[in-house]
Amino acid sequence: MALHCYCTRPSRCHLVIIVRCNPAVRSCKRIMRLFSAKSLIALTTLTLLLGSATGEGDAGSTGKPPEATVLTLLHTNDLHGSIIYPGEPRGIATLARRIRKEMPHVLLLDSGDIIHGTPAEKLLEGRPVIAAMNAAGYDAAAAGNHEFDWGQRIARNAIAAAAFPILSANVVDAASGEPWGGLQPFIVQEAGGVRIAIFGLTTHRTPEIQWPRTIEGIDFRDAIEAARVLVPRLREFERADVVVALTHLGVETDRELAASVPGIDVILSGHSHTRLEQQVWVGKTLIAQTGSAAGHLGRIDLLIRRDDKDSGVIAINGQGGRWWGRDGVSAPLGREYPTQPLIALTASEEDDPAVSAAYHPFVERVQRHLDEELTSALEPLPADGVEHEEIALGQLQADAVRAFTNADIGLSALYSLNPSGLSPGPVRVSDVYELFGGYTRQHLVVVRAPGARITEMLDAANDGVVRLHLSGAQVRDDVLHIGDAPLDANQRYTVASAAHIIQEHLLGKEGVAVMSDNPEAAAIRDATIAYLRGHPPLENVVRPQLTSVAVP
Ligand SMILES: [Zn+2]
Fold it and tell me: What's the rounded mean pLDDT across residues 34-52?
């Protein structure tokens, strides 16, 4: 049964038993209207006789000194699929299990960008990392912007597959205003008689960094405004003694959040990949972030009091530079505590067997695909230090996209390639994954664009530096030809490329219409894999196509 006391000082409320007995009665204020002052006195006496309803740690009116609860928060952020990685154990779950044995109340939390960043995550729609987090015993996570990379079906499935709640208080269905896709704004956990509210926030800048279709119908509301409404509710209506924010906003926005919204004890931050080696305080709010990709596990120990007079955080380990158990600072429960906020995760730490068992079958499923030998490279094909000129790899990408989509023009961008390029020797699927490091907005998009827009795009992007390459187009006698005919400014041509390249150079321009943009469809990487399968050995040979457009 959901237990709620809706008065402003619930820890002092002697009516809580009545509320528990009758959930239809929504507030103590309402109850007070139901009883006369005389009956209230009788009721209070009854409550005291029955005992305190707030459980362990509530000294109530017994005269005992207030008891305190030690709560340990373990946290990660921006895992990007790396909770475990083939051959590189991270040991998050091993450490968490060890600390759970040592400490009375432990929560394992994550601040978002989970299902993105490794070939296995891409190929299996984020299922491996979610399975590993389930096995690791995560208690909650925030939704990051990258959860939306591969479209809404995959994001919904990831949320549903998680055995822990995925939180965001500012991502809502645009039509209904309700939490989107199985997200929850917050949860309340009880530990040692204290109530811990945990809420999530997702960067409201997500629409600026996603392809529009992936987030169609989703409203990313202002995160700070959402917190301003929610936090007082958590304190008052949800009777939270501790409020923890899992934020995927970046540290700078977190500072703003802490300064603008009182009542948040701890902000477990994400998105900016910042490794906060020292505690950061803004007023009474502690901000912590661990970097990214499971390099570190964060740990925060809080001492929380809840009695009939007051409730809340008494102290946090390291607060004011005073670390428990050091320099004469007494350590609660007689235990040892860390003297810094981050625990380095190293390859020497064994993986937790349950996490390995959950994760590795996924990796084995994709390994054969990643090991497939597509062709070979006879010499290095560089992608670095080649500004101002066309390169073989840029042309290859553009050719692959055009071949895959049958568009008039295949478009590629040098900046989307890993600078290390391709090395001589076999070219495997895994090498193509390395060549295109990104996983966001990589799906192929086809637009129809007037010739004039194509010329403008090339003039702007390749202004003295070749950033874009074309396939299906060539400059002959200083005239750009599409196929065999000179470009016609008014004719519409189909142009295909990765979503982020189209978004940067063509989307929203006059006369440009999107023809296909399914985020679950093939990515530029898939087009390249298909193109290279059985391709003759690669040589670093360039066919100049655009140079006279770029450098008139
Ligand atoms: Zn992010």
Answer: 30
| DSSP assignments along 481-506, one per residue | EETTEEPPTTSEEEEEEEHHHHHHHT
Torsion of CA 256, 234, 202, 207, to 10 degrees: -90
C-alpha of residue 138 to centroid of ligand 1, in Å: 19
Q: How many A from CA of 253 to the centre of ligand 1?
A: 13
Nearest to 340 by CA among 313, 353, 327, 321: 321
Q: Which residue has the tokens 């709010």?
A: 285
Among 516, 416, 409, 500, CA closest to 458: 409
Paired residues of 303 in beta bridges: 70, 315
- Match 């990392």 to its residue by tokens: 129
Q: Which residues, 6 or more positions from 22, have their beta carbon under 8 angstroms from its beta carbon?
A: none
Q: Evaluate whether 68-364 and 373-550 have a shared fold.
A: no
CA 77–ligand 1 middle distance (angstroms) = 9
Give the CA distances from residue 10 to residues 4, 19, 28, 239, in Å, rounded to whole numbers and listed in that order.
9, 11, 9, 6
Pairing of strands 106-110, 68-76: parallel
CATH of 68-364, one of 3.30.450.370, 3.40.190.10, 3.40.640.10, 3.60.21.10: 3.60.21.10
271 C-alpha to ligand 1 centroid (Å): 4
Give the dihedral sign, CA 531/436/148/84.
positive
3-state class percentages of the chain: helix first, strand second, coil last, to nearest 5 = 35, 25, 40
Q: Judging by beta carbons within 10 Å of its beta carbon (0-12, 13-18, 19+), is residue 367 exposed, middle or buried?
A: middle
Residues in Cβ contact with 162 at an 8 Å cutoff, skipping those fewer than 6 apart? 130, 133, 134, 138, 141
Ranges of each domain in the chain: 10-50, 68-364, 373-550
Number of other residues whose CB lies within 10 A of the CB of residue 22: 10
Task: Collect residues with CB below 5 Å from ion ligand 1.
Answer: 113, 144-145, 271
Position 91 scores a pLDDT of 84
516-552 pLDDT, tens digit each? 999 999 999 999 999 999 999 999 998 877 765 444 4
- From CA 496, how far away is CA 398, in angstroms rounded? 9
In whole angstroms, give the CA distance from residue 480 to residue 493: 13
Q: What is the mean pLDDT of residues 449-467?
A: 87
CA-CA distance, 457 to 409, in Å (whole number)? 13
Cα of 259 vs centre of ligand 1, distance in Å, is: 22
Q: How far away, in angstroms, is 203 Cα from ligand 1 center?
A: 8
The rounded Å distance from CA 145 to ligand 1 centre is 5
> What is d(CA 210, CA 152) in angstroms, rounded to the nearest whole number?
12
CB contact set of 13 (below 8 Å; sequence gap of 6+) = 5, 7, 28
